[in-house]
Amino acid sequence: MTIRLKIMLFTTVTLLAMVVLVTLLSAYNIRAQGDARIAAYRGEALEQIKNHLTDLVEVAYQTIDSNYQNLSKVEFLSNYYRKRLSDILDSGDAIIKRYKERVARGTISLEEAQFAAKEEIKTLRFDGGTGYIWINDTGQPFPRMVMHPTVPTLDGKILDSRKFNNALGREKNLFQAFVDVTRESPDGYVDYLWPKPTQDGVTDEMVPKLSYVRRHNDWGWILGTGIYIDDAEEDIKQRIITTVKGMRYDNGTGYFWINDNTLPYPTMIMHPTLPELDGTVLDDPKFNNALGVDQNLFQAFAEVTAANDSGFVDYLWPKPTPNGLSERTEKISYVKLHKPTGWIIGSGAYIDNISQTVAVQQSKIEQQVRQLIKRNIMASFVFMMFVVAVAYVLSSSFSKPIQHLTLVAEQISKGKDLDLKIAETSRSDEIGELARSIERLKTSTKIMLNRLKAASKK
After folding, report:
1. Per-residue pLDDT reduced to its tens digit, 43-68
2. Residues 91, 171: one domain?
3. List of residues 6+ apart from 125 with CB closer than 8 A
4. Which domain holds residue 148?
5. Is the domain of 92 the same as that of 205?
6. Are 276 and 215 within one domain?
7. Could you tell me if 334 and 314 are in contact, meaning their C-beta atoms sit under 8 angstroms apart?
């Protein structure tokens, strides 16, 4: 292999190696910078979504909590149930009015009318049997029970037992409270403790109750009915569920659901887009899609709220669209436990748009890398042609003198052309030094040959 070829080959290989190295380093830097930008974007986007979800769920939580706290507010309950309880007493009033009219017409005595009225009122039932009307009189200092449909042993008795000193917030006899509250006004409310009717009688324990009472002065009667707070609680819960079910955001695609915190598998209380889940124990294997842990996602909700009251879980879930639900899509949800009800309130955001944006950015990065490689190949080809041409010229300036010197040396070795001029002796580089050495060799050879010729003639 000639020196010229070696020089050109070395130059080409070195240049190619440099181009490849620079291209690889540039591609690596582009990808590294792109990955850093993508990671920063993903982190910022997720953080914005998490903050947004936290704010939204907090609004739903406050809606639930404020409504639930109303259970302890007599004013709220009295206003909320005013018409319902008033309508119940209206039915008792209608019976009394009918018998009063008969007394006025003289077809029945007052005693007969009162007896018949209380017997008829005794049979009235409301709210699945737990609602009823009782009658006590306005006697002082303690009233007398005229009729109680669920505790008939009280009928006719003076209500002075200490067990009746349970009017909440008043610490006094609840029947005295009925008389007091209707003294200035014909009706009013009193909250207290009382046994709750059951299919087998009444409960042994005393249950919180709110009663609405109305006075009939001409008969000296007070009619009363009430709502048990646990019944009110279920009523309020249904109201809360209806309210939360109707809450929407993000053009109707955002919603809230409620499940309980039972473990190992919670029960769905309300899901606005999948109502078929309501009341269902959420143990179906299709829910084993909590990303990163591959566990039941509702179980994950219960566990994260048991540990910290609230938290985030990412998973897969169908996405609402104008045409219905899509295939399961990446989603992250924020959940918070409402301890008084044992409800977990949650809302989520689909993060497939983040993944789509990341995919677009990754595609752009790969496109930049391909364009870089393409540009480098084109630039390196042009540059390589230039460098090869320069290398060819430079190598020629080395190889041609060496070839000439090689020819001269060969002629000297044969004793020929000893008068041949060596032009390269004027060069100042290593070739010039070699040429001058050959020139000296040529001169020495020429002298030696002349001596040999002279000696042979003697």
Report:
1. 777 888 899 899 999 999 999 999 88
2. yes
3. 131, 132
4. 81-231
5. yes
6. no
7. no
